């Protein structure tokens, strides 16, 4: 695993500039910006600073793939709720779709992504002028374009039209920072450009200690997802379905009908996708990297899903499944959507915790007349058996895109472009077979196949920061959004079309006269 070191540019410098070391806690000198960006080490550290926003965490900061996507996004969906340990009013308002433009988590999502984009723009302006190995320079610039594309991809899906900032802003006058929103189509065009350029220069693989950095295969896989998203709602650029098929096949292995030579494949055991002992395996195309108990670079999600009060475990039960009524079961949840024999269920969830102190099992039973002996399922994907009981920080990486998703992107896009062909069935059945499920029924209509892909996406990727984005883009047979319907199914009766996008943070509008609120939030 790559041990990225991060810096605050223009403020602190460190005695050692090796990219193999983590950030030192005590600064040893101060540098102005003009003194920096002189060496190869400066360039490496500047790029590492762009990665910083994927995985940094701690008591005072949440970054997108370390808790923030959960507290600021998952809670607004149909699978998850804040548990008893989640007392933050902004999180709880999101969970009932009562949020507003002043919601702190909505602001933090905006701020964190634009802070990362700013650092990417710094790299793209400053690093080309530094004299060092040209091959390494080209690679670093490719990594930066990949990351900028990823951050913009998140922003445009969360907020719709957003300011498209592509240069390093170092203005004197505040008015110069007043930038209007760009149409989503323009933002997507830039995302495509960055990913295409990144794919053309990035390597296929890395050796230690650089494993975990963006690769050419990752750029192609993410681009396939970008095409699929544009073809879906709300943009409905249907021609992009075939683009998604073609790009996915550039990353798929030959055994799966592709031309990719990146060595990607499904791991046999679904649990190995998440267990730290198997991180960066052949299924991980690109992931946020975590290292337990090391300078706030541990995955903080695990303790949030552990039942509080278990001796020897530091759980606060802040994240729980969303219970809703289905039939006569008032405690239905995503846990009960899994078919009998689906191996993913008992990796994704646990029903009890064993105390490392006294060996006893702790669970929350449910008095459910519809389901005898019912009990509460707890999220388990980021569990780390090797982590200390003191902090429960996990070293589990968070997959941002993995091979199972590439297969499902291919299956969905192929179905939309050409119908439920043999290619579409093959890709979907690969994922189902690993889950222990039979092949999908032959002879389905396009609409039936689409619904099957949607369900397998939900079950495969739950708690991986995918569901909200899927809720936004998915549709019914008539190309109508299913967002409101899906939210109301789980009891969110106030769900409305405006909730598809977040409001622009009010503080940003107050500081930028050119920035206008999203229409349905005005």
Automatic annotation (TrEMBL):
PROSITE patterns: PROKAR_LIPOPROTEIN. Residues 101-228 form the SusD-like N-terminal domain. This is Membrane protein. It is found in: Cell outer membrane. Residues 316-521 form the RagB/SusD domain. Its main location: membrane. Keywords: Cell outer membrane, Membrane, Signal. Belongs to the SusD family.
